[in-house]
């Protein structure tokens, strides 16, 4: 009895460590194979790969003093990053397969240009779009499908998969909405105050008129005073 329990516990521990070590599921493996055989995916992969090859070669030619793309060698390279985010792949992937992510890779890490980096769109099938499967995906792709690739596309050992989190999107939207609402408060206060300000200027115009009328009266009075002064002066000279 006791031995049986121990065995079961050991088995559970083994399963747990296997899952935390990043074992991929059978569903994920199958859907990956299916995707890689899909004619639409193959077509877009072909165009992405050839386009990215040009970009990478061009980037190396500008960022290295001496660049040898064919042998994967470069001297005095700095700031060598080729961006190959392929819109057709992103659209196809998000509509038919799963989520379009980005693989950051150093294709010439071993051959002699370790600073050269390439960022490529990588389609993660829906069945693989979960923590453990995603963690294992690139090493599986790198190991199992190496025969499908060659040259600069061969090495996926230094690759990092980055997927935009599905949680961050809604969070950003919520934050923006809250910020808009908060911004609306001072704006609406301003808008509600504006007519009052106009009313105040109107009143002050009336006041101005009233004041100017009063001033007119004062002037008239002053004129009369002047008259009296003058006459009094006149009177004084007399
Ligand atoms: C993607 O396309 C390239 C270029 O045609 C090809 O060499 C590569 O084998 C393709 N990748 C896969 C996994 O089929």
Describe the structure.
Residues 207-238 are annotated as: Disordered. The chain crosses the membrane at residues 167-192. Residues 229-238 have a biased composition (Low complexity). Keywords: Membrane, Signal, Transmembrane, Transmembrane helix. Residues 1-22 form the signal peptide. The chain has 238 residues and is an alpha+beta fold. It has a domain at 22-169. The protein has 6 helices and 6 strands, in the order αααβββαββαβα. It has helices spanning 2-20, 26-37, 39-63, 87-97, 131-144, 168-237, and strands spanning 64-68, 73-77, 81-84, 98-105, 117-125, 160-162. Strands 3-5-4-6 form a 4-stranded mixed beta sheet. A two-stranded antiparallel sheet has the order 1-2. It starts with a helix and ends with a helix. Residues 13-20 and 225-238 have low confidence and may be disordered. Residues 36, 42, 45-46, 49-50, 145, 148-149 line the site of 2-acetamido-2-deoxy-beta-D-glucopyranose.
Brief summary of the model shown:
With 238 residues, this protein is α+β, with helices and mostly antiparallel strands.
Observed structural traits:
binds 2-acetamido-2-deoxy-beta-D-glucopyranose; alpha+beta; signal; two-stranded antiparallel ribbon; transmembrane helix; transmembrane; 238 residues; membrane; four-stranded mixed β-sheet
